Amino acid sequence: MPDSPPPEFTAASVNLASPRLGAEVIHATDEFFGAKERILQDAEPVFIPDKYDTHGKWMDGWESRRRRDGGHDYCVIRLDARGAIAGFDVDTRHFTGNHPPHVSIEGALTESPPDEDTRWTELVPKTAVNADSHNYIEADCADRFNHVRLHIYPDGGVARLRVYGRPVPAWERHDDPAGVHELSAVANGGRIVGYNDAHYGNPWVILAPGRGLDMGDGWETRRRREPGNDWIVVALGAAGTVESLEIDTAHFKGNYPDRASVEGILLEGGGDESGLLGDGAEWRCVMPEEKLEMDRIHTFEGGQVRDIGPVTHLRLSIYPDGGVSRFRAFGKPAGD
């Protein structure tokens, strides 16, 4: 059965269950065939026909043994980037005769590891899922959670679980939100809106914490053979005034961009973002073209960054092409 197109909630959200954001599986009732940690991996699941281990067929996901006691299995995931959850993707790709026929999902907000006294909120009632496919399920709850419990009935394997939602930004987690924050960070609600090319790597990771692990851990375009340049558009977690910028070319040596510039725009009232990917948007210069170097963190501040007032989106342009490991925009949310 072919997968249906990803629903709208995936485009307007980030995956709160990404290990890059600190998410981890802290408990599973059973992981005989597949380690529980695999269910959160950012990489797409793979199938290796001839790969076996001491427990049997190796599968790229979390997989429990066959239950004979009438119960069911579950796993608990801690979300370091707590947030409001919009929906899930219970991805059963490559699990055909061994996927769970039904799942349910709960959420909890607790500062300590969940126990028998934890109050769980049902986000997805017991729902049928298909084998070897994405299973997108919307969640209808505005509450914030930092733990998710996935139940599978009665047993089986799930390749990946994606938890789509809006993280609680740093300025909303503190009693005194005033100050400079990383407005572009995924953990603060930053996300990629679009780009003209992303031949290599995974664009969203340029907003992830830390430095890139290798050359594949970033946004990289193909070698440009025609005039022009490449670009990527970032939505900030909140409208804010940009005070400094960081462009990290870690691991990009023979393929880093020669130069970069940054523009900003204030999209009022949650307007249509699709217009930001065409030629009609009225971008204003935040940082004119600056020279870049290979494999280093570039910090731009002071006179290098123009104060154009609050912006909701930034466009990073690279000249003419190449790879960027991380991009960060620091400033004060417009409400401060």
Instruction: Quote the beta fraction.
Output: 35-45%
* Overall geometric form: globular
Q: What letter string, H or E per element, gives the SSE order?
A: HEEEEEEEEEEEEHEEEEEEEEEEE
Q: Low-confidence runs (pLDDT<50, min 5 residues)?
A: none
Average pLDDT, rounded to a whole number, is 94
Report helical residue fraction: under 10%
What is the CATH topology classification name of the largest domain?
Jelly Rolls
Radius of gyration: 21 Å
- How many E-type strands? 23
**What is the H level of CATH, i.e. the homologous superfamily of the largest domain?**
Galactose-binding domain-like
Which structural class do the helices and strands define?
Answer: mainly beta
Summed up, the domain count is 2
Query: What kind of sheet is the major sheet?
Result: 8 strands, antiparallel
Termini Cα gap: 50 Å
CATH architecture of the largest domain: Sandwich
Count of alpha and pi helical runs? 2
CATH class of the largest domain: Mainly Beta
Give your account of this protein's structure.
The protein is an all-beta fold and 336 residues long. It folds into 2 domains: 8-167, Sandwich (Jelly Rolls); 171-333, Jelly Rolls (Sandwich), CATH 2.60.120. Helix content is 2%, strand content 41%. Strands 1, 2, 6, 7, 8, 9, 10 and 12 form an 8-stranded antiparallel β-sheet that branches. Strands 13, 14, 17, 18, 19, 20, 21 and 23 form an 8-stranded antiparallel β-sheet that branches. A 3-stranded antiparallel β-sheet has the order 15-16-22, with no helix packed on it. A hairpin with a 2-residue loop joins strand 3 (52-53) and strand 4 (56-57).
